[in-house]
Amino acid sequence: MRSESDLTARARIRDAAIDLFGREGVNRVSVRAIAARAGVSPALVLHHFGSKDGLRKACDAYLLEILRGDGRPADLGDTARLGSMLEAAAPARRYLARAFLDDSPEAGTLFDEMVAASERWLGHGAEEGWIQPSEDPHARAAVYVTWLLAPVMLHAHLSRAFGVDDLAETGATLRFSRAAIEIFTRGVFADDRVLDAWNTVRKDLG
What we know:
Blueprint: H1 4-24, H2 31-38, H3 42-49, H4 52-68, H5 79-88, H6 90-102, H7 105-128, H8 137-153, H9 155-162, H10 170-186, H11 193-205
Helix pairs in contact: 1-2, 1-4, 1-6, 2-3, 3-4, 4-7, 6-7, 7-8
C-alpha cells in the first residue's frame, strides 16, 4: 500500500513531466531533468513509472481522465473557478500540442474522446434550446474540437498575432477565448448567402 507522501511524489513527477514535455518535447527532456523539476531522484521517477515512455503514457492517461471528467460542462457563471481553470490549464495545453504533433495513438484517443464528449454536450444543449441544432451533429462536434485545438496547435503564430510571448498567459487566453465564444454565439456571417452558395455547390456536385 502506497503512503501519502509516495502518492504526492508521483503527482509531482507527473506534473513536472507534463510541463517539461509540453515546453520542450518528449525527446528533448531527460528523466534527470524531470526529477530535478519534481524535487526527487531519477531513481524514484523510474520506480513509479518504469521508464520515460511509461511516464509519458501516464501523462496521456491523466489528461484523458481530466477530459472525460464527470460528463458535465463547467459552470461558466463561476468566474473565480473559471479563472483558476484557465490558469492551471497552461501546462496541459502545451502538452496537448506536443501530443497531437507527435500523432501518437494516445493523442488519437484523446481527440476521439474530445469529439465524443463535445457531441454529447452539444446535443444536450440543443435539447435544452441553447445550442443550435445541426444536420450532422458528429461532424459539427469534430469541427468544434478542431477549433478548440487551433490555439494549442498554432500557439507560436497566435502568440505573434496577439503580441504576447506566451499564448497560455491568462490575459491572452481570455482574449482569444472571448473572440471564439463571440463567433460561436453570434456567428460571423450576417445572412445566408455563403451557406446558400455552398448548398448550390453541393446540389450541383450531387
